Amino acid sequence: MKERLEAIKQETIAKIKNAEDLNILNDIRVEILGKKGQLTEVLKGMKDVAPEDRPKVGQMVNDTRKAIEEKMEEVKAQLQEKAREAKLKAEVIDVTLPAKKNKIGHKHPNTLALEELQRIFVGMGYEVVEGPEVEYDYYNFEALNIPANHPAKDEQDTFYINKNIVLRTQTSSVQARVMEKTQPPIRIISPGRVFRSDQVDATHSPSFHQVEGLAIDKNINFADLKGTLQEFAKELFGPDTKTKFRPHHFPFTEPSAEMDVSCFKCGGKGCRFCKGEGWIEILGCGMVHPHVLEMCGIDPEKYQGFAFGVGLERIALLKYEIDDMRLLYENDDRFLNQF
Ligand SMILES: [Zn+2]
């Protein structure tokens, strides 16, 4: 028995020393110490040992097991360390590989159009001014010469917070605020969100964006308005763009006009894009009504000015050839990534 145990011990320790990896080491454990292992077999043979010799033999078996387990732990630690080093070597970071790209957002067509508009007007010396979306009735209507009985003030068209406060229906309210605080010369554009009580369809939304412009100084006349807006149209749609002014009516300007640009698709010949007209309506404009200047504390005898307002969505839809306004608000990545 003693020789047998000694043989198992020598043989196993030799095997353990030669083990090349943790799997082989585990196989050795199963082979010797496992349920059907050699050492377990020896223990099963104890029943044939004389009872008085059993404690002695038991001790020998335990000593053998202990010696094997100790060697095993030692080699296991070495093998683990080796495996760790090999892993570190294999997983060296290649700093020359291109980095993983984070998915970041994409500029909305509205933002692109706004940046373009701002670039053009800032280039002409205009300042960008913003104002509150929840606005006093006074700045949204009254200061802009819109009387109390004007149809625009109908609840069908305007969201009222209460009798005196509305969700602004136009960013012209910012113009009134600026004129009240600043003496001319004034040259501003005021971009922002506006609200109208409209049903959603391909060209309407209860919330959309406007960019309004205002220039006030001495000796400003309609030619200045035309020159400025012509320059704007050429910058936005190309140097061959022509403009056309049609008489119109707005309460806060006099005279007032709507401006069309020659179709940038067909050059004015008429196509599907301009519905055969050759012209596309772009914005409303006019000379600031003397009454508006007066109400905002500016002397209409000394100063004149012009104002214009353009729908940001309208520009985005035209410039990027989008045929349904609703697409702008759906936040669909597949749509937005096209611009
Ligand atoms: Zn056309």
Automatic annotation (TrEMBL):
Keywords of the record: Aminoacyl-tRNA synthetase, ATP-binding, Coiled coil, Cytoplasm, Ligase, Magnesium, Metal-binding, Nucleotide-binding, Protein biosynthesis
Coiled coil (residue ranges): 61-89
Cofactor: how bound: Binds 2 magnesium ions per tetramer.
Source organism, top-level taxon: Bacteria
UniProt cofactor(s): Mg(2+)
Keyword ATP-binding in record: yes
Residue intervals of the Aminoacyl-transfer RNA synthetases class-II family profile domain: 117-330
Location of the protein in the cell: Cytoplasm
EC id: 6.1.1.20
UniProt signal peptide: none
Record Gene3D superfamilies: Bira Bifunctional Protein, Domain 2
Record keyword Glycosyltransferase present: no
Reaction it catalyzes: tRNA(Phe) + L-phenylalanine + ATP = L-phenylalanyl-tRNA(Phe) + AMP + diphosphate + H(+)
Entry-linked InterPro entries: aa-tRNA-synth_II, aa-tRNA-synth_II/BPL/LPL, Phe-tRNA-synth_IIc_asu, Phe-tRNA_ligase_II_N, Phe_tRNA_ligase_alpha1_bac, Phenylalanyl-tRNA_Synthase, tRNA-bd_arm
Quaternary organization: Tetramer of two alpha and two beta subunits.
NCBIfam families, per database record: pheS (TIGR00468)
PANTHER family to which the protein is assigned, alphabetical: PHENYLALANINE--TRNA LIGASE, MITOCHONDRIAL (PTHR11538:SF41), PHENYLALANYL-TRNA SYNTHETASE (PTHR11538)
The protein's name in its UniProt record: Phenylalanine--tRNA ligase alpha subunit
The species this protein was found in: Eubacterium segne
